Amino acid sequence: MTGLKGADALDFHKKLKERNAALRNAELNAAKELADKNGKEPFDLVKLERLCDTSQAGRLVEGTERQAMYEYMYYVEYKNVGTLQDFARVVTTLASWS
After folding, report:
1. Domain that holds residue 47
2. Which of 3, 55, 68, 93 could tie 59 with a disulfide, CB 3.0–4.6 Å?
3. pTM for the model
4. Mean pLDDT, residues 60-77
């Protein structure tokens, strides 16, 4: 395999990022649909940040990025967690490991 350089490399990287973003969004949307059917509490970043300290994961990061990060974790990575209170415990545990 030959390495890509210059504009070809940039174009490949752009297409790869777009594909991965589309896959991630599709995965999130499917998980949200399933969560709604199963009665999972809707994600709310403001409520989560009242329940636990998210500063270890970058409270200084822009709100939209924090929203995307925690929403993905809540619906996709921790799909069996049904409430924000329980998810706050997960976030607190994860923060204690860093």
Report:
1. 6-96
2. 55
3. 0.84
4. 89
